[in-house]
Amino acid sequence: MAAAVTSALAAARAQLAPTGVLRCGINLSNMLLVTGRGSQGEPQGVAPDLARRLAAALEVHAELVPFPHPNQLCDAVDGGIWDVCLIGADPARASKIDFTVAYCEIQATYMVPISSTKTIADMDAKGVRIASKNGGAYDLWLARNLKNAELVQADTLDASYDAFHSQGLDALAGLRPKLASDLSKDPGLYRILEGQFMSVQQALGCVKPADGSRAGLDFLSQFAEDAKQSGLVQELIDQHGVTGKLSVAGPA
After folding, report:
1. How far apart are CA 23 and CA 76, in angstroms?
2. pLDDT per position as a tens digit, 15-27
3. How far is Cα 131 from Cα 161, in angstroms, rounded to an integer?
4. Comparing C-alpha atoms, which of 118, 126, 97 is closest to residue 173?
5. C-beta separation of 174 from 138 below 8 A
6. Is the pLDDT confidence value at 251 over 90?
7. How buried is residue 66: exposed, middle or buried, by Cβ count under 10 Å (0-12/13-18/19+)?
8. Residue 102 phi, psi (nearest 5)
């Protein structure tokens, strides 16, 4: 049994950390998963800490590779810059990235004018215009699922709010905690709808191997499941002050 475990670890390490260091792609734009910076400027938060725990499980050192936006992280998949990533799992990203089940999730919903009578169910209608941050997991979901409404995409989170506000759009799509913080920008003008149109499934991912090997993905998947069941994910959520904003995902 011990030999089999050692062999599986060696195979996973060879695939996930071929340089001897686990290079972890981190999405800096998710302010719930990256909540600050250390004394040397290194990202801190749930995602960086989970990446470090993953490296420890592989018995290698972790190197955090930060990206300003998730689409930039995904675009770098072929560049040999990162080995694993911690981002929202989405079918549009899965052609080149193998994802685990989610380790945590975040509600995505809409901000609307205070006088609006629209519900989430009313949004996909002709004439409705929705601002969104281009390339985010919820934006990719909207791009696939909206059939009638117009998606007005912006390059950054703040720019999507600015488009919503300055152009008088019907709604701003976003993660519930970020939308809640944005209410203070123009007090009394907007409100956040109850419910969600989807939840962003935050997962671990690795570069899809050309030979179809599953050693790396199997190790990541077991690590993600163990991190949920052991209480590690909840511990990190509590430690970094995002309790009630992030939720531990359900079992696989």
Report:
1. 13
2. 999 999 999 999 9
3. 7
4. 118
5. yes
6. no
7. middle
8. -70, 145
Asked if residues 208 and 85 have their Cβ atoms less than 8 Å apart, the reply is: no
In sequence order, the β-bridge partners of residue 130 are 151, 171
The helix-helix angle for 215-229 and 46-58 (nearest 10°) equals: 120
Which residue pairs, CB below 8 angstroms and at least 24 apart, start in 121-126?
A: 123/149, 123/170, 123/171, 123/197, 124/148, 124/149, 125/149
Residue-wise pLDDT for 188-204, tens only, equals 999 999 999 999 899 99
Instruction: With a cut of 80, say whether residue 225 has pLDDT above it.
Output: yes
Indicate the residue type of 188: G
Q: What is the DSSP-derived secondary structure letter of residue 249?
A: P
Looking at the DSSP bridge assignments, the partners of residue 65 are 25
Residue 2: strand, helix, or coil: helix
| β-pairing verdict for 97-113 and 247-248 | antiparallel
**What is the model's pTM?**
0.82
- State whether residue 103 is helix, strand or coil: strand
Please classify residue 44 by burial: count the beta carbons closer than 10 Å to its beta carbon, then call 0-12 exposed, 13-18 middle and 19+ buried.
Answer: middle
Q: What is the pLDDT of residue 40?
A: 87
- What is the distance of C-alpha 71 from the center of its chain? 11
Strand partners, 205: 85, 99
Query: How many degrees, rounded to 5, is the angle at CA 44 between CA 50 and CA 140?
Result: 70
Alpha-carbon distance 210 to 18, whole Å?
A: 15
C-alpha–C-alpha distance, residues 103 and 114, integer Å: 34
Give the model's confidence band at 1: pLDDT under 50 very low, under 70 low, under 90 confident, else very high. Answer: very low
**Closest CA relative to residue 201, chosen from 95, 69, 106:** 106
Tell me which DSSP letter residue 41 carries: S
Q: Which amino acid is at 54?
A: L
